[in-house]
Write a structure and sequence with these properties.
Chain A is of the alpha+beta class and about 260 residues long. Chain A contains five helices and 14 strands. The two termini of chain A are about 35 Å apart. In chain B, the strands form four sheets. Chain B has a seven-stranded mixed barrel with strand order 12-19-16-17-14-13-20. Chain B has a six-stranded antiparallel beta sheet with strand order 7-6-9-4-1-11, with no helix packed on it. Classes of the chains: A alpha+beta (about 260), B alpha+beta (about 325).
């Protein structure tokens, strides 16, 4: 454990994560907007910083740069970079001032709240002493920062939901949560980009495909973007769903090209 | 061309995956046991990262539609060609019309079928590795099924090669993984920390390419718990990360594991041993042995010097 003093008041710990990765850990137990800003600033710096480039190939030495809510993971190839050198690169980046202007897009996500698409809206509003309409207003008037993507493709972890919407998860996860579902869990809100099992309270669904293999750019949302939910009717939902389906093109087989090694 | 007559428990097309997209929730994936995958490809004269079939647990039956050379490495599955035993770890010519059958895995859980020239699949982000949760790669993103036909891709780069004695990895139904402490290791009780290294675990039925849920392999239950309740927010995971959920039964993330998770990350399997984690199937016993970072680096150097050509070893381009 090496305590590092960065330019900001935030002092992360740098922890080894196996022999080919380091975790830059801010150790906060809750969502903290200041830390999220700092992590997204670091994310941009690790991607582009010239001190993190291989001297001959000019490629970044990092294989993966993965943000969490309160931490950032960087992985490297232990054949070309030893851990001590990687640590020096990390320390160099941490000493830089935080980027003030982060370049995240704002993405509008149409959501049909309630009904069969948001089966938990009634119980969540009842438990939180709100009407479903209050819940929709509260959830959609806020703009959210995309803190991180994962655990599976397209799953969008957003910044804190308004306090009045905080609600525990289902005690036992549902076996199937459809892709596009908008959920609440504790203080969190997020989007299921894929159909997966899940325990979040589902309050609505977007017809947009957050992750689509058939699209030229498969990822609709990136960490650091902002998301704004726009309430739509069931009719609008169905129309958008049809047009999304038409945009999709069938998977084209490609021949494997030899020699990445 | 080859045709799948029976895909067995689960067979998928794999290469070495698509690194660099974990921030989008996409694990690099690829062959779960990279060492046996690489050896099979090397033996038939392919670049080590050529697409091959990963057969899980066994039961794969394949009919060849052209003359070619094949090699099977990994878990022993009593492979036969037209009913006659086929030697593993040995490049063997097959003829048009020959039928390969694999039975049930004995030691370990995954075997790799490499074919001279490699196989074609649908590429996503530069890889044909099948990732089932998001239906990526392979053939329409799915596990292979009977009736699927796979096309042989390119020509091999070399004539078939014989794997030298001493290079065949030994598999066992008790896998010992060397690990480093994970970021939250110190939050566990002293007894839990001790149990991680002295306890004998067994993979439950909840085991697949994404991960394996472990339980005590003996009558004495093992519970791995934090010293005091800890509040955690989701953070990054890697293949080989051992997470400890509140019920005390640890979960080991494997090659297709989630990119992020919210449970304490107690251990991290070292790179040199990750291939062995790819051989964990239900009922396989697992133990963990502590290893410190300089030790892990030394082990990695040694293993690469043996198997990686760039470091004086066997296989071009390969590294653990």
């Amino acid at each position: 454990m090496i305590p590092i003093r960065s330019q900001t008041l935030l002092r992360p710990e740098i922890l080894p994560f196996g022999e080919a990765a380091f975790l830059i850990d801010f150790k906060a137990p809750h969502f903290d907007a200041k830390i999220t800003n700092h992590i997204h600033s670091l994310l941009a710096q690790f991607r582009t910083d010239s001190t993190c480039q291989d001297s001959t190939s000019k490629n970044s030495v990092w294989i993966e740069i993965v943000p969490g809510y309160n931490s950032l993971l960087v992985t490297f190839d232990p054949q070309t970079l030893d851990a001590a050198q990687a640590l020096t690169y990390i320390q160099n980046v941490l000493r830089r001032p935080e980027i003030d202007q982060l370049t995240g897009k704002t993405i509008e996500i149409p959501v049909c709240y309630g009904g069969t698409l948001g089966p938990d809206i009634e119980s969540v509003s009842k438990n939180n002493q709100l009407t479903p309409q209050d819940l929709i207003t509260l959830h959609s008037e806020n703009s959210y920062r995309v803190c991180m993507m994962g655990f599976v493709p397209g799953f969008t972890f957003l910044s804190e939901a308004p306090k009045a919407l905080h609600h525990p998860r289902h005690p036992a996860p549902r076996l199937k949560v459809p892709a596009g579902s908008i959920g609440l869990a504790g203080w969190q809100t997020g989007i299921y980009g894929l159909e997966t099992p899940g325990g979040w309270q589902i309050i609505g669904r977007t017809p947009l495909r957050i992750f689509d293999v058939t699209r030229e750019s498969p990822f609709l949302i990136h960490s650091g973007d902002h998301v704004k939910f726009i309430p739509i009717t069931r009719k609008e939902f169905d129309a958008l769903l049809t047009s999304e389906a038409q945009k999709a093109t069938p998977h084209k087989p490609k021949t494997f090209k030899q020699g990445r090694a | 061309m080859l045709e799948i007559l029976n895909a067995g428990t689960q067979s998928t097309l794999q290469d070495i995956g698509r690194p660099g997209y974990r921030h989008q929730g996409i694990p690099s994936g690829g062959a779960a046991d990279t060492l046996n995958f690489a050896l099979a490809n090397w033996s038939v004269g392919n670049p080590w990262n050529s697409p091959a079939i990963e057969c899980t647990m066994g039961g794969l039956h394949v009919k060849f539609k052209s003359n070619t050379v094949i090699c099977i490495c990994g878990a022993e599955m009593w492979a036969q060609i037209n009913g006659k035993p086929l030697q593993m770890y040995k490049a063997t010519p097959v003829k048009n019309g020959d039928i390969l059958t694999l039975s049930y895995a004995r030691d370990g859980c995954r075997a790799y079928l490499a074919i001279a020239g490699g196989l074609e699949g649908q590429a996503f982000l530069g890889s044909v590795a099948t990732y089932l949760p998001a239906k990526l790669g392979g053939i329409n993103g799915c596990a292979l099924k009977s009736g699927d036909r796979l096309t042989l891709a390119t020509r091999p780069i070399s004539a078939p090669r014989t794997i030298p004695k001493g290079y065949i990895p030994r598999l066992s139904r008790h896998i010992i993984l060397r690990v480093m402490a994970g970021p939250e290791f110190k939050t566990l009780t002293a007894e839990s920390q001790r149990q991680l290294f002295v306890g004998l675990f067994e993979a439950t039925a909840a085991t697949d390419r994404m991960g394996t849920r472990l339980q005590s392999a003996t009558e004495k239950p093992i519970s791995i718990v934090p010293a005091r309740p800890i509040s955690m927010v989701s953070g990054p995971l890697l293949p080989g990360t051992l997470q400890t959920p509140p019920d005390g039964h640890p979960i080991l993330a494997l090659i297709d594991g989630h990119c992020t998770g919210g449970y304490p990350r107690a251990l991290q399997v070292i790179r040199s041993d990750l291939w062995q984690a790819g051989q964990i199937g239900p009922g396989i016993r697992v133990s963990f042995r502590r290893c410190f970072d300089t030790e892990a680096q030394a082990i990695l150097k040694g293993r690469n010097a043996f198997y990686a050509k760039a470091y004086g070893g066997l296989i071009e381009g390969f590294a653990f």
